[in-house]
TrEMBL record:
Localisation: Cytoplasm
Binding site for Mg(2+) 2: 419
Keyword tRNA-binding in annotation: no
Lineage: Bacteria, Bacillati, Mycoplasmatota, Mollicutes, Entomoplasmatales
Organism, scientific name: Spiroplasma sabaudiense Ar-1343
Domain Aminoacyl-transfer RNA synthetases class-II family profile: 181-500
Required cofactor names: Mg(2+)
UniProt keyword Transmembrane present: no
Protein name: Lysine--tRNA ligase
């Protein structure tokens, strides 16, 4: 009976498998090699020797270098010499192999290598007549046989979906992809450095939650057999980090995976990375200043400047960012003034006149204000802008504004119509927090599957005393997209979720 995973090999795959069988039969199986001790990386060799002239290298008493990498180019120079090109993680270099130096037998094995094979090389450096730094091969070892051919060097991966499905091939073929993910790591390290230097502590909190809380989002649900109960993959790290502030830490942050059972597009993936930070005794303005600094420092690290281009727009991250109350923004764009006191019926009537669909779980004027912002304002924002003053009904964890109790001390950062951060002065009144959770339950009963659940343990934590605290969440993936000029979130996730192949 045919194995369901069995497949037909292409002609090139069959040829490579026959080559491997021959190598294994002749006791040259590359997959039995366990180690190759390099003396240098390709980049280190280039940096050390690229300034030497051809004559300098000829006269230099060189010890053999040992490098390793994947064959990317291969061409014969007559019958007795071969030029090839190999790449490792950081760079690539030309190599030159001669029959009279390797010996007849070893040279024939070398001639039989394929693009994609991984080899270890020992030799000295030279420069060609064209001035190209080249490793003259004295000895080589086949470390891994590539049984599948790489895509054509010039056309690359033709199907964009395959670029994401087979990221390992994309990384081999496209140096820019590798640079994007190296930049991602540098950005995360820079954020950690900034926060660590301020004395804040990086922590880890649970991924499995008993309560769906900390954000307005639809969760993934799983069953924990040992406890015979449902758990949620976290949609935010917020509520556990706040517990640590109650416990006496005055600055904590976590960088980690968040899971939301929602759609996929160029800006959304069901699992993504965020950083959440909570600092005791600070306010919303402090977080605005800190956010500006984080973006500026990361831009200087990756772009070496603060004026960047993204999505066809020129942005200046180094200047002071606009701070715009949500109601003022709506009034400026639409002419509708939500500073005026109005009933829910009056707000609903205005919404219908403007073509906005009010759902049954939109229970208040605050919900309608948010609908106006999302419909008419959000996509008009280009330069980095802090939108603050969100209605209380859509901000169940935010402190109420002292000047106008309809709104909260909360802001979101928008750049070119995309949200990059969400922050607020944390609600630390356990009585008010309990009532907000109750309102969220009413929204859930009315059909809002993104409403926050009741977390009694969190209420109890607040009852022990929670100092005035400022908290923020920043989307790492979108920040990386911005600073690497990446169009889709899939471009900055090593292994994004994909729809099944048809």
């Amino acid at each position: 009976m045919k194995d369901k995973f069995e497949r037909a090999f292409t002609e090139q795959e069959q040829v490579r498998r026959e080559k491997y069988k021959k190598l294994a039969h002749e006791n040259r199986d590359p997959f039995k090699v366990t180690k190759f001790s390099r003396t240098t990386t390709i980049q280190e060799a280039i940096e050390k020797f690229s300034s030497f002239t051809k004559e300098d290298l000829l006269n230099l008493k060189q010890e053999n270098l040992k490098i390793a990498g994947r064959i990317r180019l291969f061409r014969e120079a007559g019958k007795k010499a071969i030029f090839a090109n190999i790449q490792d993680q950081e760079s690539n270099i030309q190599i030159y192999a001669r029959q009279d130096e390797l010996g007849d037998s070893e040279f024939e094995y070398f001639r039989d290598l394929d693009l994609g094979d991984i080899i270890g090389l020992e030799g000295t450096l030279m420069k060609t007549d064209h001035g190209e730094l080249t490793l003259r091969v004295k000895k080589y070892t086949l470390l891994s046989k590539s049984l599948r051919p790489l895509p054509d060097k010039h056309s690359g991966i033709a199907d964009i979906e395959e670029k994401y499905r087979r990221r390992y091939v994309d990384l081999i073929m496209n140096p820019e992809t590798k640079k994007t993910f190296q930049a991602r790591t540098k950005i995360i390290r820079k954020i950690q450095d900034i926060l660590d230097n301020k004395g804040y502590m990086e922590v880890e909190t649970p991924i499995l939650h008993t309560i769906n809380g900390g954000a307005a989002a639809k969760p993934f649900i799983t069953h924990y057999n040992a406890l015979d109960r449902e758990f949620y993959l976290r949609i935010a790290t917020e509520l556990h980090l706040k517990r640590l502030i109650v416990g006496g830490f005055e600055g904590v942050y976590e960088i980690g995976r968040i899971f939301r059972n929602e759609g996929m597009d160029t800006r959304h993936n069901p699992e993504f990375t965020s950083i959440e930070l909570y600092v005791a005794y600070e306010d919303m303005d402090f977080l605005m200043d800190l956010t500006e600094n984080i973006f500026k420092e990361c831009s200087l690290l990756i772009q070496e400047k603060t004026n960047i281009e993204y999505g066809g727009h020129k942005l200046e991250l180094g200047k002071k960012w606009k701070r715009w109350h949500m109601v003022d923004a709506i009034k400026e764009i639409t002419g509708i003034d939500f500073w005026k006191q109005m009933t829910y019926a009056e707000a609903t009537k205005i919404a219908k006149q403007k073509g906005i669909q009010v759902e049954k779980h939109h229970l208040s004027v605050g919900h309608i204000i948010n609908l106006f912002f999302e419909e008419f304002v959000e996509d008009k924002i280009i330069e980095p802008t802090f939108i603050y003053g969100h209605p209380k009904e859509i901000s169940p964890l935010s402190k109420t504004n002292n000047q106008d109790s309809r709104f909260t001390d909360r802001f979101e950062l928008f750049i070119i119509g995309r949200e990059y951060a969400n922050a607020f002065a944390e609600l630390n009144n356990p009585i008010d927090q309990y009532e907000r959770f109750v309102d969220q339950i009413k929204e859930a009963d009315a059909g809002n599957d993104e409403a926050t659940g009741m977390d009694i343990d969190f209420i109890e934590a607040l009852e022990y005393g929670f100092p005035p605290t400022a908290g923020i969440g920043i989307g790492i993936d979108r920040l990386v997209m911005l600073l690497t000029n990446s169009e889709s979130i899939k471009d900055v996730l090593l292994f994004p979720q994909m729809k099944p192949r048809s």
